[in-house]
Amino acid sequence: IVTIDIGGGTSDIVIANHNEIKCITSFRFASNTVFGDLTEKNEGELSGIVSQFASKIESKLKENNLAVIESIYDDLKTKNNSADIASFFFSLKDNKDLTDKKIDIDFSDELRRDSKQKISFLIFYCAIIYHLAKLMKAKQLEMPRHIGFSGNGAKVINILTNKNDKLLANLTKRIFERIYNAEYPSDGLSVILMDNPKEATSMGALMGRHDDNDEIIAKKIVLLGTDASTFADGLKYKDIKDNVEKYIRDVQTEIEEFFKFFFNLNDDKLSFRDSFGIDQDIIEQARKVCKRDIKTYAENRLDQKLKEVNKEDPIEETMFFYPLSGVLNNLTYEIYKQVSNNYN
User: Fold this and answer.
1) Which end of the chain is more exposed for a tag (fewer CB within 10 A), N or C?
2) What order of strands is seen across the sheet that includes strand 20-27?
3) CA 187, CA 237: separation in Å to the nearest integer?
4) Predicted pLDDT at 322
5) Euclidean distance between CA atoms 183 and 196, whole angstroms
């Protein structure tokens, strides 16, 4: 069984068998990657998804004379934090002032029905499963029987499939089968989207009685992200500093391989358009955008990371998601610009 806890800033994965933890991994690739600010932004500029839906939500607030809620929103805009604004948009569905007046503002539903930005959520999901499958294969673990998602960021997955567990399981199985180069075991795979993801954290839901922090630390592993099987065992950040260019090249190659893998998933058996409602022109646009500036995003994020740590610190997270965050961030903004131009 695998549990994946998607938060705002980090995603945490626990892999267990018969309630025994086999390994744990964690990385900074979570819901803020999709909704958060641009890697490079101008003053007042918000992320692509927030920008695309902001005017529609603003109009609804004004039309219904919701002055108090408008003032909260105006205050958030002055702080210019896209992730906070996205959280505010999500909260409106259950806001008492709105429900009392029977005003429906459902940001999740807006995103679910959108045929443009949905490819961003699909890339986000597939990247996590792709990394998980490579990690499990490298550790010579069997393909999982169950995968459970928790954490507030798990709403990203609900946007993608509207709680269609079967569709999600089929997509996930295809990723594992291609990484393992083998058919899925006959028992199959169940994907569980927990009803109350914020409360059911991956560690608590799976581990129950396990509270030995030393044991948890000992089980943490990091697949470096430079190839299919190299772990960060014993490596420190000084090892990267001493050979930065090589690590950048290797991570770039891995991301290029991932995007090739991702777009090859779009076939007659699991069409992105038919299965997830993504426009064909957006798929082609994404194919082009996802080839751009991978090396630059990898360099920038690694440079930032090396400034944050001591050179003697052990490597704590994979580098696989370093350029992915930048590419995905740019893709959401490029889609927003295209939607805006078509509308105008």
Assistant:
1) C
2) 20-27, 11-17, 2-6, 146-150, 190-193
3) 41
4) 95
5) 32
Q: Which residues of 32-55 are buried (b: 16+ CB within 10 A; e: fewer)?
A: bbbbbbbbeeeeeebbbbbbbbbe
Q: Mean pLDDT for each consecutive 10-residue tract of the chain (344 residues)?
A: 91 89 94 83 80 92 89 91 93 91 92 94 97 97 93 82 86 97 94 63 47 72 94 94 94 97 94 94 96 95 93 94 94 92 65
Cα-based distances in Å from 51 to 44, 54, 339? 11, 5, 11
Residue from 237, 36, 21, 63 nearest 124 by CA: 36
Nearest to 12 by CA among 176, 192, 150: 150
Parallel, antiparallel, or unpaired: how do β-strands 2-6 and 190-193 relate? unpaired
Q: Determine how many CB atoms are found less than 10 A away from the CB of residue 3.
A: 26
pLDDT of residue 213: 65
For β-strands 11-17 and 190-193, DSSP reports them as unpaired
150-to-138, 273, 321 alpha-carbon distances in Å: 25, 27, 20
Residue-level pLDDT at 168 = 92
CA–CA gap between residue 123 and residue 118 (Å, rounded):
9
Query: Residues 321, 13: contact at Cβ < 8 Å?
Result: no
Rounded-to-integer distance, Cα 323 and Cα 247, Å: 12
Q: Rounded to the nearest 5°, which phi and psi values hold at 170?
A: -65, -45
Check residue 335 and give its pLDDT: 95
pLDDT of the residue at 152: 77
